[in-house]
Design goal:
Largest sheet: 6 strands, parallel
Bound molecules: manganese (II) ion
Helix content: 25-40%
CATH superfamily: Ureohydrolase domain
Distance between the termini: 41 Å
Radius of gyration: 17 Å
CATH class: Alpha Beta
Number of strands: 8
Number of helices: 9
CATH topology: Arginase, Chain A
Mean pLDDT: 93
Order of helices and strands: HEEHEHEHEHEHHEHEH
CATH architecture: 3-Layer(aba) Sandwich
Low-confidence stretches: 259-267
Number of domains: 1
Strand content: 5-15%
Shape: globular
Oligomer: single chain
Structural class: alpha/beta
């Protein structure tokens, strides 16, 4: 379903309804220090230029000690900030929450497709760890097998619970977190480009995101693939609240937010 270009605006609109105070963290998440940049204009006919621009902006933020947090938009955008962070952190790895592996060599005639973004990330020698997967092509299955890429299937998480320690063991430091909203069950987030049944719960997602922020330095993240459904704001609000939660968890990262001393009030 097309329409993810309306995602970022819908998240910002919905964010007005999110409580500042977070009962889990006993803090107002924004106090970590946040600012919202203007939308980056991307010509649909020239995605490569838009991604270069996004990389450029992310690099400026990273050099200024700021964590780039990108709202999408198509999952293809992830390559921009990851390129910028890879240049700064050679040990970077990526935690991917997603229904799909996005590991195709190319898709519909382009290498910059949302369906091949993680393949592009791995070509930068950045290891990726995929969680929530439940839709895989034969090509991707073969690739995962050959590359021994770590994949945590949604079905196994449903049966045995979320293996937080096993997931964390696959991640180096620092970490970039990419959240494709279709990782979550469409019962929670029906407004995505490609809804797939059998996804993660809200609680599982938060548990994993908190764990990665507590145990690794998270240097960048994104929330992508929101495709707002007019008159049905649940998905938009889900994404906005998730962004707020993630901002709160970033304050738990070892060393805290870059450029600032760690706040002592977190539990
Ligand atoms: Mn994806």
């Amino acid at each position: 379903m097309p329409g993810t270009r309306f995602g970022p605006r819908a998240i910002l609109e919905a964010s007005r309804q999110v409580e500042f105070y977070d009962e889990e963290l006993d803090t107002e998440c924004y106090r970590i220090g946040i600012t919202t940049l203007r939308e980056i204009e991307v010509e649909p006919t020239n995605l490569a230029v838009g991604l270069d621009r996004l990389e450029e902006v992310a690099a400026q933020l990273v050099n200024a000690g700021i964590i780039p947090f990108t709202l999408g938009g198509e999952h293809s955008l992830t390559i921009g900030p990851v390129r910028a962070l890879r240049a700064r952190y050679p040990e970077l790895s990526v935690l991917q929450l997603d229904a799909h592996l996005d590991l195709r060599a190319d898709y519909q005639g382009t290498k910059l497709s949302h369906a091949s973004v993680m393949r592009r990330v791995r070509e930068l020698k950045v290891p990726t760890v995929a969680v929530g997967i439940r839709s895989v092509s034969r090509e991707e299955a073969d690739y995962v097998h050959a590359e021994r890429a770590p994949v945590f299937l949604a079905r196994e998480i449903r049966e045995k619970g979320l293996p937080v320690d096993a997931i964390m063991a696959k991640l180096r430091n620092p970490v970039y977190v990419t959240i494709d909203l279709d990782a979550f069950d469409p019962a929670y987030v029906p407004g995505v480009g490609t809804p797939e049944p059998g996804g993660l719960t809200w609680e599982e997602g938060l548990k994993l995101l908190r764990a990665v922020c507590e145990r690794r330095q998270v240097v960048g993240c994104d929330i992508v693939e929101l495709n707002p459904i007019p008159g049905q704001p649940a998905s938009d609000f889900f994404a906005a609240k998730l962004a707020n939660k993630m901002i709160g968890y970033l304050g738990l990262s070892p060393g805290g937010p870059p450029g600032k001393s760690r706040r002592g009030s977190h539990r």
